[in-house]
Specification:
mainly beta, AttH-like fold, 1 helix, 25 strands, globular
Length: 372
């Protein structure tokens, strides 16, 4: 993370206003994963067998970590909504000096919460900051809970599932119960997802790619009963991007044949795909097929320019995985799904059409585009 971003986090966790909805000059997401200020933190250099429930909790010896929940929901009348609820932990000091103040902390937290109301043509995004002190933010495994003030993901005892997701702001609210249909899938090589040639330029990364979701969602003063499918991404490490990486394009797709696809393209400064791009195809039985940069062909089909920031994003894509005989078209439910917050990026609900071995596929998912 850049020192400018680190100072911004320290300032925001100290101020009295916990929630923001507008940031005129959002910071590039790649700055949060840069090389600055990483001395003293553990790096991802060896393979890891994930252990649960322990690995659902924090890993404070690494500098950065996140819990990502996204999903597509519908009302009984088939009105579509998307949601994102994410928790980010940032290490501020790997060897903190003991402090008498109960406000003292070596960990800062940031949360993002968004709702996409497709029929209403609305995308609402809010963020929140706090410190890991006085019970304001943190994680625990017994009972399982990740929280940022009253935003939380909580389980029952040491069991993470069924998991309750709960978040609320002035304009949007979410109260969902999610339960998993497939076991966690580990990305990369035996728990190490390499992001570049440097030693330690990697993360531990796993996903829960098929979660049933049911509950309520609120937009302004109206609440809706919803059901649908969600996705959980978990990743932690220290300085996991090379200096020549300008941004990334990430897709988490749930298909009608009970397969899921996660793929990210790391983009270099000259617009090419880094050889360390990669992902996974998750089969109906939960088994994983690894994807390398040579296995996936990405072609942008449509661009959109944000009226707020002037950033131009490729939002519609053709994705081909020839060895799996998969051909997909990915399109956004709404173009206007840019988070113009402290960190600026586009992340939103997408719909999928295509074929697998000439059999028709449909699906939903989420996509994230940074560095534009």
């Amino acid at each position: 993370m850049s020192r400018i971003v680190l100072l911004a986090i320290v300032f925001l966790t100290a101020c009295s206003e916990p929630e923001k909805t507008i940031s005129p000059q959002g910071t590039s997401a790649t700055q949060f994963l840069s090389e600055s200020g990483t001395d003293g933190y553990k790096r991802v250099v060896s393979q890891r067998t994930f252990e649960f429930p322990a690995d659902h909790g924090s890993h404070d010896d690494y500098q950065n970590e996140w819990w990502y929940f996204t999903g597509n929901l519908e009302t009984p009348e088939e009105r579509h909504f998307g949601f994102e609820l994410t928790f980010f932990r940032f290490g501020l000091d790997p060897t903190p000096t003991p402090r008498k103040s109960e406000w003292g902390t070596s960990q800062a937290w940031m949360g993002h919460f968004t709702v996409t109301d497709t029929e209403g043509g609305k995308f609402i995004a809010v963020e929140r900051f706090s410190r890991q002190a006085l019970g304001l933010a943190g994680s625990q495994t017994d009972p399982f809970k990740i929280w940022l003030e009253d935003w939380l993901a909580s389980g029952d005892g040491q069991k993470i599932f069924p998991l309750n997701l709960n978040a609320s702001s002035d304009r949007i609210g979410l109260d969902l119960t999610v339960d998993t249909k497939k076991p966690p899938v580990s990305h990369g090589n035996e728990g190490v997802d390499q992001k570049g040639p440097e030693i330690g330029n990697a993360s531990h990364y796993y996903s829960l790619t098929k979660l049933n979701a049911t509950g309520t969602l609120r937009v302004d003063e109206t609440s809706f009963d919803v059901t649908g499918s969600a996705w959980m991404d978990r990743e932690w490490g220290t300085s996991s991007l090379s200096k020549d990486i300008a941004g990334w394009d990430w897709f988490g797709l749930q298909l009608s044949d009970e397969r899921e696809i996660m793929y990210y393209r790391l983009r270099t400064d000259d617009g090419q795909s880094s050889p360390y791009s990669g992902g996974s195809v998750v089969l109906p039985d939960g088994e994983r097929i690894g994807l390398s940069v040579n296995d996936v062909l990405l072609e942008p089909l449509e661009y959109w320019t944000s009226p707020e920031t002037g950033a131009t994003y490729p939002l519609s894509w053709q994705i081909s995985i020839p060895r799996e005989k998969i051909e997909l078209i990915v399109q956004p439910y709404l173009h206007e799904q840019e988070l113009n917050l402290t960190v600026r990026y586009w992340e939103g609900a997408v719909r999928v059409t295509g074929t697998q071995a000439e059999e028709t596929l449909t699906g939903n998912g989420y996509a994230e585009f940074t560095g534009y």
